[in-house]
User: Which sequence fits this backbone?
């Protein structure tokens, strides 16, 4: 970027000098030669401005890609804290692993949202309900007492069984 800016400044300065000489010179042949140089300088200036614009677009695209990579790396680190768990026959959630809780309460995440790299905690629509729902995609979990032996015995289930 500095090289393009420096070249652009140099071409602009040269254009001004040549333009000044063109106005002062009276010889027709010299004027034609200077006019040709001025045209070349203006063309170079135009190309440098175009290159500078393209460079800025590429720099912005690079910045966005770097940001996306950082988001993926952050997601991978956070996602490693959860484990897919079957809480009823054919019903899965991503459960926070107790040894990775770091002070957070044990909770479940919606498997649909999780697979789209989005954390959405499953919540109870009403306090007295045993079902859980994703507020984002409306996925619903309705656990049953008969399914409880399948729940990880080391982890207390969110509904208190």
Assistant:
């Amino acid at each position: 970027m500095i090289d393009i800016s420096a070249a652009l400044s140099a071409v602009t300065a040269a254009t001004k000098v040549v333009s000044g000489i063109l106005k002062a010179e009276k010889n027709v042949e010299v004027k034609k030669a200077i006019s040709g140089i001025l045209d070349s300088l203006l063309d170079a200036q135009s190309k440098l401005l175009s290159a500078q614009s393209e460079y800025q677009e590429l720099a912005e695209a690079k910045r966005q890609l770097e940001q996306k990579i950082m988001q993926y790396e952050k997601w991978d680190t956070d996602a490693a804290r959860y484990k897919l768990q079957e809480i009823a026959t054919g019903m899965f959630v991503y459960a926070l692993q107790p040894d990775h809780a770091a002070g957070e309460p044990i909770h479940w995440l919606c498997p649909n949202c999780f697979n789209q790299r989005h954390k959405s905690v499953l919540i109870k629509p009403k306090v007295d309900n045993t079902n859980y729902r994703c507020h984002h995609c409306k996925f619903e979990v309705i656990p049953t007492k008969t399914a409880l032996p399948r729940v990880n015995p080391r982890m207390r289930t969110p509904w208190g069984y």
Summary: The chain is about 50% helix and 15% strand.
